[in-house]
Structures
1.
Amino acid sequence: MIEKYQFDNFLKIGLFLILITTSFLAAAHTKKVNKTGILLVSFGSSYPETRASFQHIEEEVKAAFPNQEIHWAFTSKIIRKKLRSRGEIIDSPAEALAKMGEEGFSNVAVQSLHVIPGEEYENLKKTVEAFSGMPKGIDHVKLGKPLLYHQKDIENLGDVLLQNLPKGMHKGDVVVFMGHGTHHPANVYYSGMQYYLWQKNPNVFLATVEGYPELNQVIEKLETRKVNKVYLLPFMTIAGDHARNDMAGAGEDSWKSELEAKDYKVEAVLSGMADQNEVVHIWIEHLKEILLELKAK
Ligand code: CO
């Protein structure tokens, strides 16, 4: 009966092992550690040249909040698909929040890296709301405001942009910023920003690709004065597809080509607003607000 005896013991040991592993896993799963994480959300870009800008944002955020783990999500499905075909996996906001819930984050501060509170921001807000208080998920999720939200943001961003105008600018040179523009009511932020910029510097213009004001309206203004050179700069988080094609591209529809066809000397600067530390700090201030609210939970 020795064999039977050994078998019984194996069975007991086996059962014991299963029991402790499952109880350990269950504990790990349900144990609520008060863990707070940051999720940075951008529209995204498939241009490898934009990676340095995203990295710059991450470095600044890390320096401001060294104890928080930073995760990323891109909202654009087309861009995520394109990146996936190259082996670069970037989550959607919903995927990232689901994973962070599984990883045991109890609080998540989601920071929008959008410029205006338009459609993209509103969609993100819906996703964030859907994840708040989800059973067995994250306890508290908060969404940080985009670059422009309050009047003070317009003033802060305007001042930063005016301080960082192209180095080689001479008298008679003008700057034309390219904003995205939208059919969403938040398109008024572009006119609000233009007004603020003009109050401080009448040589700085802002137009949009898909909204109001348009480039033609800027050209009408330029034609009333003597212009030496036009600097084109993205009024966008990163210098992605719009900046590289619609703004600075060689095609005849690009802003550069359109202005050159009117005999203006043009220099396009392929650097998104996120390349400026002071701009990233506006987003960081918005992130700080929600992290404080989460700490209060
Ligand atoms: Co676009």
2.
Amino acid sequence: MEKKSNTSYGDAEFSDFLKMAFRRHLGHDEADYEKPVIGIANTFSEVNRCHSHIQPMVETIKQGVIAGGGTPLEFPIMSLGEMFTSPTTMMYRNLVAMDTEEMITAQPIDGVVLIGGCDKMAPAQLMGAASANKPSILFSGGPMNNGEYKGRTLGACSDCRYFWQEYKAGTVSETEIKEINKELAPTAGHCMVMGSASTIASCSEALGMMLPGGAAIPATVNERMHMARETGKQIVRLVNQRIKPSDIMTKKSFENAIRLLMAIGGSTNSVIHLTAIAKRVGIKIDLDLFEIISEETPFIANMRPAGEYQMQDLYHAGGIPVVLKELESLLHLDELTVTGKTIGENLNNIKIEEVYRDIVRTINNPLHKDGGITVLKGNISPNGSIIKPKAVIDKKLLKHKGKAVVFKSIEDMEKRINSEALEVDKDSVLVLQNAGPVGAPGMPEAGMIPIPQKLLKQGVRDMVRISDCRMSGTAFGTVVLHISPESAIGGPLGLVKDGDLIELDVKNRILNVDISEDELKERQIGWKAPEFEDRGYYWMYRKHVLQADEGCDFDFMLPDFKDKSIL
Ligand code: FES
């Protein structure tokens, strides 16, 4: 074991002497600190309701650590709940990553169990663990059980959006929407469709940072407590074997994670998160890699919002291990995982029961022959943007030309979107500017721009929408996101005006505005950067956040922040 870090008093022996005096009240004796000391980064929070149930799991992880021959020490980490954080949790993902890294590094622990769940927590913790590089395992609080309303399965938050849209269209009554609201988040756990939380947990299994099966077990099922105990035991073994995140998170393991992302039709947010985590270990992955892997990966997991099932169903089918088993011929099988074995070894003996075949298809009989996320380029997004074509409602819109209806900001959009005076029809392209990492700031999940109410009432349910912000992994529609560079730093999206003709051609990977290069240059000359009056964290965030295609980490958190080649 490596020497544990110590508070500095200029006398290392005195530091040990003091440490012993101050930890006696925990019931520990000196021998306990000669064992592997395992930090448990507890993210319990009642404000983050997706983590409000995890305390018994933390206790069980501790039991596992003790059973494995280690000493557990629980400590708090910032906790972000999607529905309860303003302006958006993405604004604080990097802060959680810094908190995680510094606490792992500063404290006298040999390894750590990180507790993920709600969307930004697992990515942030993996970023922190990658930089701290002490043995680490990610554990998830698990997804909610399925909701149900009048015999129909409900999922947070795809159905939150679907029924809200119908309520606005007038097809769902006030009484019904209140009843539905009670069933949208029916149990403890994180959102149970293949949104960002489920996606990043699933990708963590493929990356090798979570024990096999850890992503899909519902929060309420006893098996999750068993997984907690196993995680506690396994982190002690990892410390003894000196297996660190840098041994596990390799270029090839990121390719495995991206492969899985495409096969499950996972969240667009994961593109940003995987890029950021990889950069923390000095690995450059870019949008072109996502595009290549998407083109060659069949979409086999029939999961909402792009498919029909939810995490509870996937759990019964065998979870992410059965998806990986189907993808076996496309994976790098020699990559090490937190089991201490390779991902290929973990997949020995994994088998899906045929009764679940509609949930996880074979690669020869996929739902779609290519993956769930497509990268677009063109004169509006020179550095790329993304779309989830399988979550598009009106497939005709995958190739579309329409006139831009431009909103200058999220506030502008909220103010005008339902105005009777708004000149918009079903063929318009809704354009949202200044909602990116710097502009908003924090790139909120406002990309699924609401369909104007007057069009909803005419029966319109999908339109082309483009922006430099994100959308929830649970959202759907013909929504182009993460346009980069963003409008607030001078990206061409900010130069689009009402009435400009926008061309979307997903098959040919094109997103263009039909104006000449000269006209674009002229508009650029007249463009003024927005001014911000920030202090504190907001000031630091806007000054240092990277663009969406670069992972939205802070530039100074990269392994060598002077080396721009990783961007
Ligand atoms: Fe936490 Fe959806 S609100 S995962």
3.
Amino acid sequence: MKIVTIIGARPQFIKAAMVSRELVKCKKGAGAPCNQEIVVHTGQHYDYNMSKVFFEELAIPEPDHHLGVGSGSHGHMTGQMIAKIEDVLFDEKPDLVLVYGDTNSTLAGAIAASKLHIPVAHVEAGLRSFNRRMPEEINRVLTDHVSKLLFAPTGTAITNLAREGITDGVIQTGDVMLDAFMHFKTKAAIDSQILDTLGITAGSYYLATVHRQENTDDPHRLAGIFSAFEEISNNGHPVIVPLHPRTRKSLQQNDISVAQGSNVRLVEAVGYLDMIQLEANATLICTDSGGVQKEAYFANVPCITLRDETEWVETVDAGANFLTDTDKQSIFNAFKQASCTSIKLDPALYGNGHAAEIIVDSLTESL
Ligand code: UD1
Ligand code: UDP
């Protein structure tokens, strides 16, 4: 079976890593690999610490095609990707195209393939925020509606798809991010030097990430978030903030900074091993990232989500995740609530760490 995998943004490298390593295993026991994976990197993310570091750390095969699309408006970026992916599909003639998550790279892959009548398989299907102002929500809905195989991480995702009339080809797999977290957490604990590098110790810092368009592109929200980080950091522990390049740019453009001498530490975005080591040892995590919300849950660390809604509603129900508005006082209130929460961990919510195997078995059976 020849599969073209389309990836391009940070979380997709992490998700694809787990499936790629399963794909090369021959399930028919014939000795030679049964599957051929052609990896296409759209180039949506391109800085070393947003792209190549993940290929190195997670041993993802080098991309067979690098489209070099880079940054731009949604339309420009997606349009260029569609045209370039179409060229690759003409050349490669795959049996199936595999896409991940909800970025512009996901949508471009799904559109290019479906118009050529190549079956699309979507990993992380069925997630919904029910907020159509999010670019990711548009990407998810459209991708799900042209996919032949829909790999849903949770029961909630299955219900969301059924509500839109999608039941054929839907398979509950568990979450490939749990696979990755379980697979790499011991390696991270041994190999990562990040706590020493930052001069922090386990249980004595807070961790935060911000990159969602609704927060970075609204100076009022962005300023509220960073002033709340300052307030939180006055509680005895530093707030460590690995900065997404989008956020660094927006802070500079809007002249938003943390006060000199404050205990908020802005650092460059880190690799995956450093990130899960930081997450596993944090006292509390504050984020607007989808992946980081889940990883906080996997690590049994309370989380504040800087959004009005989340796709990962199970974490909220479990008392692990607190949604908040982005003004300083609301975030600080959520911080106080999250600091004394008692999390009802249900390890089965996101599967058992074998989602990638279920995905590859289903792909093989379906073709
Ligand atoms: C994208 C995804 C988002 C995902 C996130 C993961 C879309 C619509 N959004 O958002 O769902 O959560 O990736 O991180 O696809 N930039 C750099 N260097 C890079 C990459 C980006 O400087 O390597 C800067 C550029 O100024 C760029 C901006 O970040 O314009 C935003 O990048 P973009 O890929 O458009 O969106 P993300 O916010 O990264
Ligand atoms: N991540 C990372 N380094 C960072 C920030 C995040 O490796 O500096 C990882 C994080 O552990 C998670 C993934 O990136 O696995 C989440 O991606 P991101 O927050 O960019 O996007 P989202 O999940 O919101 O789509």
4.
Amino acid sequence: MRIAVFDSGMGGITVLKELRKSFPQFNFLYYGDTANVPYGTKSHTQIKTLVKAASIEIKNKKVDAMVIACNTASCIALDECCEVMGETPVYSVVEAGIATITRILKKDPSKPVLVLGTKATVRSKTYSTSLKNIFDVNIPVYEQECPLLVPMIEEGWINHPIMQQTVEEYTKAYLSLSPGIAFLACTHYPWIKSAFEKALPGWQVIDSAALVVETLAENSKTFLLENKTAGNIEWLLTDQEVFSPLIELSKEI
Ligand code: DGL
């Protein structure tokens, strides 16, 4: 079983890490569009073109399924991706994210939800529109774009004091609310989860990786029962020479 994990850069490694932990017997193809990261500040037309090109390359690699480990790509170009992939199943972190938030809100719909993501993700309003449709009432959903975070993370400034300050700047307006769910709608952000936890005391900071794992496990039951040998990871980066400290971190997976 070969699963493609796609992201605009190296952020999708946070999802790959969870998948690899749960499915050591899968083979993975990690596709990072390192030549074009970040996607989050680009136009819809540009993002759609990039996602389509990546999907064609991934399709040619004959994978059994694809995980779009990029909220920006999922929010803007899921249809383009599914169209290219045809019958190959596509799992999106956005669908998993909405399902994760929904599960929590079903227990307490009064909790405020703060969705943190790139400009493109937030401006698409994919999360707030879907949640408002599901709950059919005016639930408190806020969306905050954090455009500086992806370049800083790709630069490796994960534990840099500037990172904490920047996260606090993006979140300070929500401190007047009662603590709720802070949803990391960008696969780069789990690298700096502790910065969000510190900036938003009492808030539950979550991402969608766990539900992607759950869905994939559900759909791969037979394979998982019958196969026990260890799988591998193939790396496909559109710019192999780009400098990213995250590429170094990826070697630890
Ligand atoms: N990691 C990506 C996401 O989940 C993309 C960030 C970017 O390329 O701007 O949105």
